[in-house]
Amino acid sequence: MHTEGVNWELSQEFMVASRFRGKYMSVIPTGYTQIKFKDGKANFIFQKVTTTVHNIIVGRLWIDNHGTMNIVNHVSGERANIKFHSYSYFSSDQPRKVEGIILDKKGNARFYIFGYWDSYLNIALINNQKNQQGKVLIETGEPKRIWTVKEPLGDSSMFNFTKLAIEMNEPDNQVAPTDSRFRPDQRLMENGDWDGANDRKNELEDKQRKARRKAEAEAERAIANNQQPPEYQACWFQKVQDTNTGSVIHTIRGNEYWVCKEKKDWSRCPNIY
C-alpha cells in the first residue's frame, strides 16, 4: 500500500498469519510500515503488533492489541519501544493500556509515553531515572496530551466505524479500474442484493482460478524449455531491497500512477473484474 499527503508518504507491505484457539483468534502481521517526511528529517519504520479477536464462537466479540512495537527514525537514530499490554482477568489495570520509552540516538531515555490505544496518549519528559531493587524508576515532568481518539460517526450498530472506514467503499470514477471499489459483487452487496453478490463473487473467483492456471501453464512450458518462468509484474510497483530493513519490498514506480490518473489512461491495467 502507498499513500501520500502534502508533507509525507506512507507505505506498508505485510503478510498475515493467524492462530485459532477455539475461543479466540490471533492475527499476526509480518512486514513493515514506513512513514517518510518529505523534508528529509524523519523516516519512521515499525512493525505492527498482534491483534486478537475474543469470543469467536459464543459471546460478544471484542478485540485486543498486544505486543511490543519498536519504532525507529532511520534519519536521526531515535527510537521508541512501545508495549501494548495484553488483557488479563487478574490485572487491576484498565484494558488497552500502552506505555513505552523514547530514546535518543545515543540510547538515552528521553520521554515516557503512556495511555490507551482506544482513547488517548500522553507524553512526558524524563527528568531522572534510577535503579531500585532491580527495577528502573523514572521521574517525569508534567505530561502532555498528544493524541485523543476522534469519536466515530456511527454507533455500535455501525461497528463504530470512523469517517474514513464509512466512506472507503464509495465509488470514485477517477481511480484505476482495478480498484476494489469497482468489484461488482461488492457493489451488489452494498446495494442489498445478497444473492446477486454471491453469484458474482463465484464468477470472479472462477475467473481468478482460470488466470492462475494459465500463468502456471506458461511457467511449466518455460521450465520445460529451460527458460526462466515469467515473473508477475505489478502495474504501479517494483521490487527493491529496502536499505533500512534489508527486506525485499514493493515501492511505487515514481509518479507513474498519478500521471496516468491525470490523463485517465488505464490501458496498462489488466481486466480482473
TrEMBL record:
Record flagged with keyword Phosphoprotein: yes
Listed GO biological process terms: intermembrane lipid transfer
GO function terms (MF aspect): sterol binding
Name by which UniProt lists this protein: Oxysterol binding protein
Stretches the record annotates as Disordered: 173-225
Cross-referenced InterPro entries: OSBP_sf (IPR037239), Oxysterol-bd (IPR000648)
PANTHER family with a match to the protein in the record: OXYSTEROL-BINDING PROTEIN 1 (PTHR10972:SF205), OXYSTEROL-BINDING PROTEIN-RELATED (PTHR10972)
Domain of life: Eukaryota
Organism: Meloidogyne incognita (Southern root-knot nematode worm)
Taxonomic lineage of the native organism: Eukaryota, Metazoa, Ecdysozoa, Nematoda, Chromadorea
Keywords in alphabetical order: Phosphoprotein
UniProt feature, compositional bias: Basic and acidic residues: 180-190, 197-221
Similarity comment: Belongs to the OSBP family.
Record's GO cellular component terms: cytosol; perinuclear endoplasmic reticulum; plasma membrane
